[in-house]
Amino acid sequence: MTATEAAPDTAPAGSGPLLELRGLEKRFGPVRALRGVNLEVPAAQVTALVGDNGAGKSVLIRTVSGIHAPDGGEILWEGQTQRIRTPREASALGIETVYQDLALADNLDIVQNMFLGRERTRFRLLDEENMERAAGETLATLGVTTVRSVRQPVASLSGGQRQAVAIAKAVLWNSRLVIMDEPTAALGVAQTRMVLELARRLTDHGLGVLIISHNLNDIFEVADRIAVLYLGRLVTQGPIAQYDRETVVDYITSGRSDRARPSPSPASPSPAPERDAKESA
Amino acid sequence: MTTFDGADVDELHAEEHDDEQDEDDLEVAIVPAELVAQSLPEYFHAWVARLRSGDSGLLPVLVGLLLIGIIFQGLNSEFLSAGNLVNLLVQGSVFMLLAMAEVWVLLLGEIDLSAGFVGGVSGVIMAELLTEKHGGWEWWAAVAVALAVAALIGAFQGTLITRIGLPSFVVTLAGLLGFEGVMLLILGNGGTLPIQDNVINDFANGNLTVAASWIVVALVVVAYALYSWMRDGRRRSHGLVAPPASVTALKILGVAVTGAVIGMICTTNRGVLVPIRGVPWVVLIVLGVLVIWTVLLGRTRFGRYVYAIGGNAEAARRAGVRLARVRTMCFALCSFTAGMAGIIYASRLRSVSTNLDGGTLVLYAVAAAVIGGTSLFGGRGRMVHAVVGGLVIAAIDNGMSLQGFSAASKFIVTAIVLLVAVSIDSLARRGTKA
């Protein structure tokens, strides 16, 4: 379980998608936050999940990462149905989520943050040298070269560097799928580019990436696939080449578009999302 | 968010052309000097940059200690005499131990106001167990029971704080009142209970022989040197940056010189009628506690989680750290250490009495930890801060007593020193963070 094994070359098994959601349902009292969502997240690709505020993006990733239990539908991981009840179980499968607040302790340095909760020890004492080397190697694999020392406290890092550390922390643990919640929301131009390049580099190593974003520029720059949520329904998904900006905006704002007809992928419920939701309910 | 852009030079060069020099300086500054420097001059440069950036470490308080020494020596040439310096170390030991106790909870961003009287209860229990009335326990058994009771008190308070979610200020304020009551109850009002046990009285009043003193000093220096060389070697063997050998050698030399000076002071005859010489036992006790607590805090998972909780409890929770357990443990360790302080206090007076002012003691202890550089807001601080801060408080107390100042002026001067220390720290840090 070293970082060098963790980050690169974990090639996807089989040809199916890494993660597949089938008819996923989530209710909060009378509110149906997710209505029969079918979504495919392949390995070695960046999938962008977009949608307006309240469309259900956060609920969806929280369900996948074990914070919410789904009320219906299936989560398939590498083709196998899985029940993900806690964040620990998600981690055990290889699903790591980088939340918007990043969950870094400012007073700890990069190594300490990356290994928080999973410190390596030697004779019951922390094996700092081992962890420092592994952290440095992981950052180097991901091409994060702007940090001067991995012994820098996180408080001294820029927004983009913090994001990079949070992502590196997520990939350190043999993860297969990294979910990023609005990774570029608070970043400037250069830092946004750095984070997007980082996402691409994860796919180079065979990891699946699911990015939530409001920023269509970022999405068209980095994503291989796009999926649009509208009021809890997944209204369209497919390779990003089949979409243009206007179409995506249509889907985000009204749940449909007359401009383009993306060749629907097998799981795409876009033609009749309502009926689909009923079936799985 | 407390970031500053200096760390991001590579990316920002394209956008911001001004202040490039500053950025370079700051970037060096935030990395510990020993991790970027390859030679002695480079190390010194990095260290100065780090100081300028506001991360001053122990330097201000050591300079403060030096100033206090110069001022009091100017007022009264007795101050730096061997006898008074050793006396000062012994007087300071209770502050140092109590301040180390407080560091455990200050790191979480909490406070323990009850530590003074928990120490008092501990001392009284020990003294009672030693009396014939209670069967005249062996000294070690009495000490063990007293410390166990202290730890249990801490675990109890910690449980109230973490499981029920009560504020530590309120719970330990209740402890401050309640345990004074318990202490009075055990002792009976107005009572003083002398301690007859020689071993316990020697904790604070006994000295090593001159030969043993030098052996201990030598052992400490050798242990430090071995540890430093082995750590550097291990870092190099892992392909990591280690401090230049010259820096490590200088540090070892520094420790050796300090050890030699302390050894010489302690082995100088300081008796008036009969010769008294040797390192006091209590100095070894404080040193031992300092080393063990520093290892626990700096080199174990538990210690790492203490810092993580103080820095970002939510991040620690998501990382799978059991917050309630770590927090409760910290309160137990705080009270346990306070119990040691209470025993040393009793040993120094060779008795326990109802006069113990645990309220003032605990506030002095918090002040000592903060003067040394520990943050009240959690996440930042070290055990050595408590020891150096305790030394400052003891030096002020001792120096002003030598001059015959009243208790009133001692309180006021200590207050001013506390404010100055916190202000220097706060101003230095404001410079670094946007």
Keywords:
heterodimer; A: 281 residues; alpha/beta; six-stranded mixed sheet; 12 strands; globular; disordered N terminus; disordered C terminus; B: 434 residues; mainly alpha; two-stranded antiparallel sheet; 18 helices; 2 strands
Structural class of chain A: alpha/beta
Counting H and I runs of at least 4 residues, what is the number of helices of chain B?
18
Largest interface: A-B, 46 and 48 residues
Order of strands in the sheet with most strands of chain A: 6-9-10-3-11-12
Number of helices of chain A: 10
- The percent range for strand residues of chain B is under 5%
Please describe the biggest sheet of chain A, giving its number of strands, its sense, and whether it closes into a barrel.
6 strands, mixed
Unreliable stretches of chain A (pLDDT < 50, length at least 5) are: 1-13, 265-281
Q: How would the blueprint of this fold be written?
A:
The complex is a heterodimer of chains A (281) and B (434).
Chain A: H1 3-6, E1 19-28, E2 31-41, E3 46-51, H2 57-64, E4 72-77, E5 80-82, H3 87-93, E6 95-98, H4 110-114, E7 121-122, E8 125-126, H5 128-141, H6 159-171, E9 177-181, H7 189-204, E10 208-212, H8 216-222, E11 225-230, E12 233-239, H9 245-254, H10 273-280
Parallel strand pairs in A: 3-10, 3-11, 6-9, 9-10
Antiparallel strand pairs in A: 1-2, 1-4, 4-5, 7-8, 11-12
Helix pairs in contact in A: 6-7
Chain B: H1 9-12, H2 20-29, H3 40-52, H4 59-75, H5 82-106, H6 115-130, H7 139-163, H8 168-187, E1 192-194, H9 198-205, H10 210-237, H11 245-267, H12 281-299, H13 301-311, H14 313-318, H15 323-349, E2 351-353, H16 358-372, H17 383-402, H18 407-430
Antiparallel strand pairs in B: 1-2
Helix pairs in contact in B: 2-3, 4-17, 5-12, 5-15, 5-16, 5-17, 6-7, 6-8, 6-15, 6-16, 7-8, 7-15, 9-15, 10-11, 12-13, 13-15, 16-17, 16-18, 17-18
